[in-house]
Amino acid sequence: QVQLVESGGALVQPGGSLRLSCVVSGVSLDRYDFGWFRQAPGRQRQGVACLTGRTGKIYYGDSVRGRFTFSSDNAKNTVYLEMDNLNPGDPAVYLCAASSARYTQCTLNGRYDYWGQGTQVTVSS
For 78-94, how does the pLDDT look when each residue is reduced to its tens digit (9 = 90+)? Predict the structure, then answer.
């Protein structure tokens, strides 16, 4: 049974930084692809970044490229999302997801089989 547990969401000022964590159980990080997504009220869920498990290659969505960093720690079986220069477009519930599809390159538009509960990120002065 694959389980994902996110943490790290908080209230942060515009321009600030935050690091989200997602502890993965039931599968090692090199066996699946992993993604970070976000869901804001009244908006469609948006892909943020993903990790191709077997290669370690990371892909970023256009709205966060250059500001967010996806990383992983195989020893802790945990993936992270470091978010810098947060702006009013970033508040949302951030969700971690795992895909067993094993694409050549992870995709934010593909099938994700397992989802965490999410962690709230708020940006306000």
Answer: 999 999 999 999 999 99
